[in-house]
Design a protein that fits this description.
Layout: H1 3-28, H2 32-57, H3 61-86
Helix pairs in contact: 1-2, 2-3
Length: about 90
């Protein structure tokens, strides 16, 4: 195993740990804004994971998917934050 492969394995392990911790916060709360921040954190982690997997899998398509996913996740989180702030859908 080369040093690059070892570093990629360590990075993927850290991504897995970050996802587990984010899911824990998403499930446990305690409040809705905490869950929203956890969901936003998970989208950032997923975007970074897609970008990190692109060279490992040898396909630049993952970078395009990460870019689109990041933009859509940002718009979704902003919309949910606005709903929470106003107290519901009008």
């Amino acid at each position: 195993m080369t040093l690059a492969e070892l570093l990629q394995l360590v990075a993927l392990t850290l991504f897995a740990a970050a996802i587990l911790l984010g899911l824990l916060r998403l499930v446990r709360g305690p409040a809705t804004p905490d869950r929203l921040v956890a969901a936003d954190t998970l989208t950032v982690i997923a975007t970074a994971l897609l970008a990190a997997l692109a060279p490992r899998l040898g396909s630049a398509l993952y970078l395009d998917v990460a870019l689109v996913y990041g933009v859509l996740a940002f718009v979704g989180v902003v919309a949910l934050a606005r709903i929470i702030e106003t107290g519901g859908v009008r």
